[in-house]
Design brief:
Strands 1-2-3-4 form a 4-stranded antiparallel β-sheet, with helices on one face. Helix 21 runs antiparallel to helix 22. It is mainly alpha-helical. Among the domains are: about 100 residues, no CATH class; about 120 residues; about 110 residues, Serine Threonine Protein Phosphatase 5, Tetratricopeptide repeat, CATH 1.25.40. It contains 27 helices and 4 strands.
């Protein structure tokens, strides 16, 4: 990402909000404090410090001390990107230079008009600019003297109506505008929470939580922004709850229980988010019973659906974790033991065994898990338990067991070289060559040099052991695959340039039997690599000459070959 193309790599909502900050001249004190290191302050609900590292026009890294954690880049960083682009002379739309002139003109107007004239102008604009009234209401919402929840529900619903098209549906572009307005409302909620205005902040959160699942059914939310608004609002509600007084916690617990029973949250997968928040709000036995009842009711519904196993396990895990965290160890253990055939619960038992320093019990659980996962045909889970057994063997410094488990993982796990090196470390230096041959022969199988995957693995071993002649032979046997030649030629080209050039030539001529500009570009890429090998210029010239005769009726190919020759 560079300072000239960063707009193409950032979500539309964050980009637009950052651009607004830049145009509003909220970036202050931009300074290049060291080569490639920029620092600035950005004024928002607070003053945030932003740091950006660049290399020429490349953006290498960035950092902001704001609390935003819903993506890799916040609006404050984007605003600084625009400011740096302007400082470096990059051409950016709506530059701050233009903005300064605009701002100066606006300030002139403000200084010469009356409050009444400005009010009349703004009211007159409401009919022309549909979103202006709601933007004004959102920005100054705390000054409205009416019930908070009713106030924000009206704002959200009016914003939704303004975004609807002729037939009531919200298309992609209108969905973006709607989301942008609702993000502004979320920003307002975060600012209110920071200012300890909890009632107003919660009113916004509740409104968005309740309204988004309704209008998302009638809009193109392929960008996922509306769903993100729901999750962010719920997350902010959770943040408020962690420091809220007991009475507010109780109110929020009841609120989440009531809302979670509404079917509108389950069409788009929002319902489960309520469950995950409830354990942190439980302070009484009655609340705990309500939480357990809610889990039971959800399980009854889920059992009627196909492929319910995963969702049921998630609910049982949630209950077991709550019981364990609240000191009800026996009840938690009963749930875990009853479901230990499932990997999620077996992991819990293994973690408990490790915490208790009972490694033998943990190993027994892994071995039993391997048997079950093989019966169910789950190689990924089998690999997980085998990897744990290796970790336990290393922990106990059991060399024969380390070797055994590493070999199992190597041969069952696509010949991962990390396990090969562990096997090698368990042998004495003088004994290793013999055992290495055993591994090589096992990989070869009856095909002598194996198939596509085996050939890659053998090449990795030959490189590790510096068996260069054997690597040369292996590349020769697989030279019809240019990818294979390309990958391993680097290790051979200095000592065996003639052979490597021959491998490339055979592979390139085979590839050239296919037509298409992408094929010709691929050929050109390989020819350029050949030219860097000793004697490659002559061979490349011969190949191009051959192509000019053999494929003279391929103008696209000839055009690309001309570029290689020049």
């Amino acid at each position: 990402m560079t300072i000239t193309d960063f707009e193409q790599n950032i979500s539309a909502e964050i980009l637009e909000r950052g651009h607004d900050y830049f145009l509003s001249q909220l970036v202050d004190g931009l300074e290049k404090v060291a080569p490639g290191l920029w620092m600035a302050q950005v004024h928002g609900s607070e003053i945030y410090m932003v740091q950006v590292n660049t290399s020429r026009t490349n953006i290498k890294s960035w950092e902001c001390n704001c609390p935003y954690d819903h993506g890799p880049i916040c609006k404050h960083i984007v605003a600084v990107f625009y400011a740096i682009a302007e400082e470096m002379g990059a051409k950016k739309p709506h530059s701050a230079k233009k903005k300064k002139s605009s701002k100066s003109s606006i300030q002139d107007i403000f200084s010469k008009t009356t409050k009444e004239e400005l009010q009349a102008f703004i009211i007159n604009q409401f009919n022309t600019h549909k979103g202006l009234k709601n933007a004004l209401l959102v920005h100054f919402s705390e000054y409205l003297e009416e019930d908070s929840e009713h106030k924000y529900r009206s704002i959200v619903r009016n914003t939704y109506k303004a975004a609807q098209g002729r037939y009531g549906f919200i298309d992609y572009n209108s969905a973006h505008k709607l989301s942008h307005s609702l993000y502004d409302l979320l920003d307002k909620a975060q600012d209110l929470a920071a200012a300890k205005n909890i009632e107003e902040s919660l009113a916004i959160c509740k409104t968005l939580i309740e309204e988004v699942p309704i209008f998302i059914q009638n809009m193109d939310d392929s960008s996922g922004s509306a769903g993100d608004i729901f999750i962010t609002a719920l997350g902010l509600l959770d943040e408020i709850a962690t420091t809220a007084p007991p009475l507010v916690k109780d109110e929020l617990f009841t609120y989440l229980i009531v809302e979670s029973e509404k079917e509108k949250y389950y069409d788009f997968g929002f319902g489960d988010y309520f469950l995950n928040l409830l354990p942190g709000l439980i302070t009484t036995t009655e609340q705990e019973e309500a939480f357990f009842k809610m889990i039971e009711e959800r399980m009854k519904v889920i059992k009627k659906r196909p492929y319910a196993e995963y969702s049921l396990n998630q609910l049982l895990q949630l209950k077991a974790i709550y019981l364990a965290d609240s000191g009800q160890d026996e009840e938690a253990l009963a749930i875990i033991e009853a479901n230990k055939d499932y990997p999620e619960f077996r992991r819990m038992l293994i973690d408990q065994a490790i915490t208790s320093n009972n490694i033998e019990q943990a190993k027994a659980l892994c071995k039993e898990g391997i048997k079950l996962s093989k019966e169910k045909g789950n190689p990924g889970t089998t690999h997980e338990w085998e990897r744990m057994l290796l970790e336990f063997a290393i922990m106990q410094k059991d060399v024969p067991e380390i070797r055994k488990q590493a070999e199992t993982l190597f041969f069952n796990g696509h010949f991962d070289m990390q396990y090969y090196k562990i096997i090698k470390d368990t042998h004495k230096k003088e004994d290793w060559p013999e055992h290495c041959e055993v591994i090589i022969n096992r990989i070869k199988g009856i095909r002598v040099y194996g198939n596509y995957r085996q050939a890659d693995s053998l090449a990795d071993i030959f490189i590790e052991e510096k068996y260069w002649e054997r690597l040369l032979k292996l590349v020769e046997l697989n030279s019809s695959q240019l990818r294979f030649v390309d990958e391993f030629a680097e290790y051979l080209k200095d000592d065996h340039p003639t052979e490597v050039l021959t491998f490339y030539e055979n592979g390139i001529k085979t590839l050239a039997t296919q037509a298409g500009r992408n094929i010709y570009n691929d050929i050109a890429k390989h020819l350029k690599k050949m030219k860097k090998i000793e004697g490659g210029d002559i061979i490349v010239a011969d190949i191009i000459s051959y192509f000019r005769t053999q494929y003279k009726n391929r103008p696209a190919m000839m055009e690309i070959m001309d570029k290689i020759s020049s």
